[in-house]
Amino acid sequence: MESPAKEEAGGELAMEIESSVTAEDWRRALSRVVPSVVVLRTTAPRAFDTEVAGASYATGFVVDKARGIILTNRHVTKPGPVVAEAMFVNREEIPVYPLYRDPVHDFGFFRYDPGAIKFLKYDEIPLAPEAASVGLEIRVVGNDSGEKVSILAGTLARLDREAPYYKKDGYNDFNTFYMQAASGTKGGSSGSPVVDCQGRAVALNAGSKSSSASAFFLPLERVVRALNLIRDSWDAFGTKPESVYIPRGTLQATFQHKGFEETRRLGLRNETEQMVRAVSPAGETGMLVVDSVVPEGPAHKHLEPGDVLVRINEEVVTQFLRLETLLDDSVGREIDLQIERGGVPFTVKLQVEDLHSITPNHFMEVSGAVIHPLSYQQARNFRFKCGLVYVAEAGYMLSRASVPRHAIIKKLAGEDIAHLDDLIAVLSKLSRGSRVPLEYVKYTDRHRNKVHVPPVCMLDGVHSQHFFGTGVIIHHSDNLGLVAVDRNTVAVSISDIMLSFAAYPIEIPGEVVFLHPVHNFALVAYDPSALGVGASVVRAAKLLPDPALRRGDSVYLVGLSRSLQATSRKSIITNPCTAVNIGSADCPRYRAINMEVIELDTDFGSTFSGILTDEQGRVQALWASFSTQLKYGCSSSEDHQFVRGIPIYAISQVLEKIISGTQAPFRLINGIKRSMPFVRLLEVELYPTLLSKARSYGLSDNWVQALAKKDPVRRQVLRVKGCLAGSKAENLLEQGDMILAINKEPITCFLDIEKACQELDQSMGSDGVLSMTIFRQGKEIDLVVGTDVRDGNGTTRMVNWCGCIIQDPHSAVRALGFLPEEGHGVYVARWCHGSPVHRYGLYALQWIIEINGQPTPDLETFIQVVKGLEDGEFVRVRTVHLNGKPRVLTLKQNLHYWPTWELSFEPETATWRRRTIKALQTTTV
């Protein structure tokens, strides 16, 4: 009778000790814990497996101070490439490197150099999984919601919660219990230690559910095993290993823990339940039931959903922990599983597979696509076989062929693709620009194969990678074909273009040869010989630049549908000279300025483009698409497009210069040198004002009458909206100036200024200046204003540095009227997820004016400066935003994932060349 009394007394004593935990106890415990908790800043430079490229913050904590080991979540260490730093509580920051990430469970380890911490006293946090119990008061210490140190209180409510389900096409943990508490953790607290009042970690924070303020914690038993094996490996090598092997076994089957009430409904025999209850630990509530099996894995066609697991190797197994222990200890060996299916017992022998062998550790990158073997994680999500060829990121080439992320590639160029090596072998045989069929499947549409034919850089603020539109053939000869199209379809010169012809069923490549710097049109060249017999069917349209269209004229609007079906409608010109007025987009990109367009009484909507012809089919205008951005209040905007007619005379003039030109500059088109025209411009954005309004600004009656007599239709005067920064007109013309005359000739429309510029080109000995008469603040002023000469090449050079695309400021940026002082700078046009610039916050829409104190006024100087920067070096960058705000930031260069390279166009060879400027020196073995 004494023993029970002693046990009861002992129980009372334990309760008394637990209730006597004071705030001082927690203060002492947390003072030991906090210095060992680190903020992790991680970057995934490439999409891989379940993760996308990007940068984020998380938490980790030191579990081995002597060896420099930090514990955190698997989704923090990432399944693929990762670059990371750890910041301790005293703001010391050091690089950390992935040491191990579990293939299934949400934990992983980073390693660091303990000697790198110079000024902080800290200890390691001991792991005590056995201390976890329902009702235990805990603290979660970490980087919650971006705060550097956050301590949240809670109480363990459950130790047997199902693993949280995060998403159908991403990482999910399984075959384990989780703990649950109402601590309300949020983003950034991933990897935080869940500690008790003694400062021991009893669990690892992994996820949360904001709707119920619940947090989910990973038990630490398997973490302790992995850590001990790492320590043993470390001691065996005598030095720190780059990585370690932790034996992990799998049957490629997912189990769930079901209560006995459920297992009975699944057919579990009564005698089996009694036996399990008798031999299992006190309080056992259920058994493990098969939930899913991965196709062609060890358990495929042997286990089925609903099967109840009874024994493994004659041992009753009802808990995940024991299941995993047996599997991990049996890698490469057979095990016996006793199963009950619908009340029928049977035994199967299964080979335990090495879990690491179906966890990808390499990838192929081609044209921005990241492709690797399908992981166990995604095979389980998608119900596919492990090891298939999986698209983690579509990149440019595959996305252009409409191949999505998560696709499985089945065939390429007619050859079966079962493994990544098969894909590499086929790609190695293809020449640049080859077009071959590609077959793939999606997990959301798994029973239908899809076939597409696959055939960069997004410069100048281009807002999309794919554009469609209708063009018109304006020249077709034996060795040259030219198509005119709007610049909302052909946005930049570095474009892959495919032409489909209504006259002949064929699709051939084209190349951009001319982009008008102001007007909304471009010229695309093609090789007529590529048409084969279709070359005799295809012909150029007849252009009719004169006479100009007038109000009331009848025209035919003709275009093509997406299925290349001709569509036409007779329409009436309602206004032949409407001035285009397109505001700057949030991200500056090409916009038409200083041009008049044609409006019709009827059309086919905002997405239909084509041509306007007379009754004989002669082209009088290009029915073109214009890009704009609609503003909604102060904070939101939306891309929009509209269509208007562009008179064909401007296109006709450029065509004539190309066909008849014999002077430089030259460009190689279809192997033949062609003369490409320059365009002389007054780089000033103008807008019309009615003469009635101009009179109210003080314009004299004499000038009002002279301008009205010159142009009785428009009855307008042109005013200055702004000068392009860096133009010869800058600092001479001011906003609001009225341009009255050039060389004493009244000016009323944009065409008048264009003709004046053309006359400069035609006159001998011209110095390229215009003698202007303007009206400014009540006074007539005579000025001599310079003009600028631009080619039709567009942007022909860019540099990719640390993951951002850098170029000289393009015209849409200069049209904002501002360039930074001190010799200007180079412009950041784009940035890439998972890159150093993403990690450290060097985003687009700003100029880089200095690197480490060295000015970078232009692209060539910038290249020379960054050439001297080494991998891993912190770089001080001085920038100026489009709004004029200066900023200084630091970033660390990573040449392993983000080498510095240049892309430039060579007119002599008509090719874009990529040249590596700085990269890590690697050795191929």
TrEMBL record:
<dbReference type="InterPro" id="IPR009003">
    <property type="entry name" value="Peptidase_S1_PA"/>
</dbReference>
<dbReference type="Pfam" id="PF12812">
    <property type="entry name" value="PDZ_1"/>
</dbReference>
<dbReference type="Pfam" id="PF13365">
    <property type="entry name" value="Trypsin_2"/>
</dbReference>
<dbReference type="InterPro" id="IPR036034">
    <property type="entry name" value="PDZ_sf"/>
</dbReference>
<feature type="domain" description="PDZ">
    <location>
        <begin position="264"/>
        <end position="343"/>
    </location>
</feature>
<feature type="domain" description="PDZ">
    <location>
        <begin position="814"/>
        <end position="883"/>
    </location>
</feature>
<dbReference type="InterPro" id="IPR001940">
    <property type="entry name" value="Peptidase_S1C"/>
</dbReference>
<dbReference type="InterPro" id="IPR025926">
    <property type="entry name" value="PDZ-like_dom"/>
</dbReference>
<comment type="similarity">
    <text>Belongs to the peptidase S1C family.</text>
</comment>
<dbReference type="InterPro" id="IPR001478">
    <property type="entry name" value="PDZ"/>
</dbReference>
<protein>
    <recommendedName>
        <fullName>PDZ domain-containing protein</fullName>
    </recommendedName>
</protein>
<dbReference type="Pfam" id="PF13180">
    <property type="entry name" value="PDZ_2"/>
</dbReference>
<feature type="domain" description="PDZ">
    <location>
        <begin position="695"/>
        <end position="778"/>
    </location>
</feature>
